[in-house]
Write a structure and sequence with these properties.
By secondary structure, this protein is an alpha+beta fold. It has a domain at about 620-760: Transcription factor, Skn-1-like, DNA-binding domain (Transcription Factor Skn-1, Chain P, Orthogonal Bundle). The chain contains 35 helices and 11 strands. The longest helix has about 80 residues, at about 655-730. The radius of gyration is 39 Å and the shape is elongated. The N and C termini lie far apart (about 100 Å). The structure holds a DNA duplex. GO terms for molecular function: DNA-binding transcription factor activity, RNA polymerase II-specific; RNA polymerase II cis-regulatory region sequence-specific DNA binding. Keywords: Activator, DNA-binding, Nucleus, Signal, Transcription, Transcription regulation. It comes from Rhinopithecus bieti (Black snub-nosed monkey).
DNA sequence: GCCTCCTGTCATCGT
DNA sequence: ATACGATGACAGGAG
């Protein structure tokens, strides 16, 4: 039995033209503002799998300062999550459940939707079904929600009730059609979207946890953000029991699996007092509108959820004021600190998620999701990066600011160089600075981006969004699909063996995750904000974290080869990795030459692991698409209409190799579906023929029975006639009064109804001649 | 090792 | 001419 953890992160783009002129005005006041503070909100939806419709079982608003409680995620206060946890456990025990978390963040001019799908399927669910549930459906759902909200700037409608994802709905076709029907420009590339499919082998909690840790490590390498956590996760992936314990979502296992107490974090306790202050401050800053909205959602959830009647106590917990929840959180934190609380629940995950600086949500990756073990382990290295979540939000630091705050990045408005400039933030994201201050300019110990660059403050929102249109609207490959269980980033890095790689990714063994400097550099907001590394540095990583399966790499990076820098590096890296291999390999050809594991010096273990991953998640085309940085998913390539497909090919500058691969993928995908339909049709025909045969056989038997009955009736009639014949002859007398011998005479009926007694010889001749000579009337006695 | 079934892929043809 | 679907044939994996 396999259990799947699907983490999906989506961010909807800002719509140009709806940007208020005033800088800092929340375009999407999803989250109530007060004094410039905006609190993120969790919308917790628990969806039954399978089920007809989902329901929201609670909502919560993060009201704590992540920076105050420390990176260990000590602060916990998300009301409603407790109820959600119990629902999840119950439904899981009843056959699985899909936990949908939506984190809304309102940054200046940019709304961030963070969707978390925690899918705990029953054993009977097929893997593909789960993938479908977590993939296109969720994307379409997000777009639906966005469309239903009327776009940006319409508060209170961003979560229309009743718009929950229907897991039973056709995941792709219908929902996407619905989205298109709504008029939403469904361009997958304009959605920051990444999701992680993580497989957890049941029955092995340590393995599962370790896999999560490994996934965190790989994602940390991809996003370049949470190398601290990621490095620890690497250890977890390698068997570190602490990290291994961090990620279990099993309701039973989570109660059993001990978690490394956060008390081991040196400064966690020291943050307690500071945390209280920040919590109070944060509580005072809670916006009333947000509270009202939250209350409405709670009421709605209560009405919708009949199960809540059985969980009133849970709802009480959910409806507790924030400060109460925070109090509970603190007490729970104390338990953690004391090492008495050894459980890890999804709530912990959410808490830890909320503990991340808001900016990192821009480029959130699994590595950014601070798994407890990894986070607690990564305390030392990240202690100086305490982030005040609320402050980070209140700074209205958006993604663009984060990008521009990158070192070596200068914001230039020269239109001539805009094209290239728009690439630079991403190209320089992964700049390696060993100095934490250098890594995060403008970052102090209390605020993530408190001293925002004044240059940015002088810019208007239009200015910001101009580049947002260029950069943010494109998908950011946030995390890897290669975060399968047994995924070992170190081994993966060995697949590509870039001796001069200075990507800063924790994947490379030369960049050991335990390296504090690399870990620190990973906290660069720029990296977190984009989730990207530079082309030449990260391409090898993106070979494993491409667009396939829902991740769409930056097209301008991977596809726009006409610009000098990124395109050159992209090609260079590509050539380095794949040499002269092409994907046009016939099945008989040594196809493995196009695969990374086939590079000289690769171990059989890596190959087998690759094969396992291939078997589990990625098809050959998906791997090829990843390898060539195809900025579209296979599903999109195959599923989109021909017009959209052609326009897509023309819209993006793709190499001939990429275009050819895309067309091949589309052809194969179409043919695959056609073959499936053909076989299904053939099977139906065979079944129909078999049914026809059965029907015919049954009809034959019926006819046989009828024939037998007829024969039987005929025999009866013959017998009766024979008896009547003898009876008649027994009564006949000849002229002399003697009995007529029936052997010599026969009875013959005439047309007029009279009966003649005819000698048989004459009768036979008269039959031939038609002359009834010698006939005589029967004389009855 | 062989067989069967399933699936993906290619080639080909017709629309 | 091109795209696309249908289908036979083949190969490979899994049981």
């Amino acid at each position: 039995m396999r259990r799947w953890l699907l983490l999906r992160f989506s961010r909807l783009p800002a719509v140009p033209g709806t940007v208020p002129a005033a800088e800092g005005t929340p375009l999407c006041p999803v989250l109530g503002t007060r004094d410039g503070r905006r609190a993120p909100r969790f919308i917790v939806s628990l969806l039954r799998v399978p089920g007809r419709c989902g329901r929201r079982v609670g909502s919560a608003r993060v009201t704590q300062a992540a920076g105050a409680r420390g990176p260990a995620g000590a602060g916990r206060g998300v009301p409603g999550l407790a109820a959600a946890m119990k629902h999840l456990k119950r439904w899981w025990s009843a056959g699985g459940g899909l936990l949908h978390l939506t984190l809304l963040l309102s940054l200046a001019g940019l709304r961030v939707d963070l969707d978390l799908y925690l899918l705990l399927p029953p054993p009977t669910l097929l893997r593909d079904e789960l993938l479908l549930l977590g993939g296109p459906a969720s994307s379409a759902y997000a777009l639906n929600r966005f469309s239903a909200s009327g776009g940006w700037g319409r508060a209170g409608q961003l979560h229309p009730k009743g718009r929950e994802l229907d897991p039973a709905a056709p995941p792709e076709g219908q929902l996407l059609r619905e989205v298109r029907a709504l008029g939403v420009p469904f361009i997958p590339r304009t959605r920051v979207d990444a999701w992680l499919v993580h497989s957890v082998a049941a029955g092995s909690a340590d393995e599962a946890h370790g896999l999560l840790g490994a996934a965190a490590a790989s994602s940390a390498g991809g996003a370049g953000t949470s190398v601290d956590g990621g490095s620890q996760a690497v250890q977890g992936g390698g068997g570190d029991p602490r990290a291994a314990q961090s990620g279990s979502l099993d309701a039973e296992e989570e109660e059993k699996a001990p978690v490394e107490p956060t008390a081991q974090v040196p400064d966690a306790g020291g943050c307690a007092s500071e945390e209280n202050e920040v919590l109070r401050e944060k509580h005072e800053a809670v916006d009333h509108s947000s509270q009202r909205e939250e209350n409405e959602e709670r009421v709605s959830a209560q009405k919708e959820n009949s199960l809540q009647q059985n969980n009133e106590d849970e709802n009480k917990v959910a409806e507790k004021p924030d400060w109460e929840a925070e109090k509970n959180t603190e007490s729970r934190n104390e338990r953690h600190l004391n090492g008495t609380d050894t459980s890890f629940s999804l709530e912990d995950l959410f808490q830890l998620l909320s503990s991340q600086p808001e900016n990192s949500l821009e480029g959130v990756s699994l590595g950014d999701i601070p798994l407890p073990g990894s986070i607690s382990d990564g305390m030392n290295s990240s202690a100086h990066h305490h982030v005040n979540f609320s402050q980070a939000i209140s700074q209205d630091v958006n993604l663009h600011e984060a990008i521009l705050l990158c070192p070596n990045n200068t914001f230039r408005r020269n239109p001539v160089t805009r094209t290239s400039q728009s690439q630079e933030p991403f190209l320089q994201l992964n700049s390696h600075t060993t100095n934490p201050e250098q890594t995060l300019p403008g970052t102090n110990s209390t605020g993530f981006l408190s001293p925002v660059d004044n240059r940015m403050r002088n810019l208007t929102s239009q200015d910001l969004l101009y580049d947002l249109d260029v950069n943010i609207f494109d998908e950011i490959n946030l995390m890897s699909l290669g975060t399968e269980d047994d995924f070992d980033p170190i081994n993966v890095s060995q697949l590509f063996d870039e001796p001069d790689s200075d990507s800063g990714l924790s994947l490379d063994s030369s960049h050991n995750s335990t390296s504090v400097t690399k870990s620190n550099s990973s906290h660069c907001v720029c990296e977190g904000a984009t989730g990207y590394c530079t082309d030449h540095e990260s391409s090898s990583h993106h070979d494993l974290e491409g667009a396939v399966g829902g991740n769409y790499p930056e097209p301008n990076k991977f596809c726009h080869m006409d610009h000098s820098d990124s395109g050159f590096h992209g090609d260079l890296t590509f050539q380095h990795v794949f040499h002269n291999h092409t994907y046009h390999l016939q099945p008989s050809a040594p196809e493995s030459t196009s695969e990374p594991f086939s590079l000289p010096g690769r171990s059989q273990k890596i190959r087998s692991r690759y094969l396992e991953d291939t078997d589990r998640n990625l098809s050959r085309d998906e791997w090829r698409a990843k390898a060539l940085h195809i900025p579209f998913s296979v599903d999109e390539i195959v599923g989109m209409p021909v017009d959209s497909f052609n326009s897509m090919l023309s819209r993006y500058y793709l190499t001939d190799l990429q275009v050819s691969l895309i067309r091949d993928i589309r052809r194969r995908g179409k043919n695959k579906v056609a073959a499936q339909n053909c076989r299904k049709r053939k099977l139906d025909i065979i079944l129909n023929l078999e049914n026809d045969v059965c029907n015919l056989q049954a009809k034959k038997e019926t006819l046989k029975r009828e024939r037998a009955q007829c024969n039987k009736a005929i025999n009866i009639m013959k017998q009766k006639l024979h008896d009547l014949y003898h009876d008649v002859f027994s009564r006949l007398r000849d002229e002399e009064g003697r009995p007529v011998n029936p052997n010599h005479y026969a009875l013959q009926c005439t047309h007029d109804g009279s009966v003649l007694l005819v000698p048989k010889e004459l009768g036979a001749s008269s039959h031939k001649k038609g002359n009834p000579k010698g006939k005589e009337k029967v004389r009855r006695n």
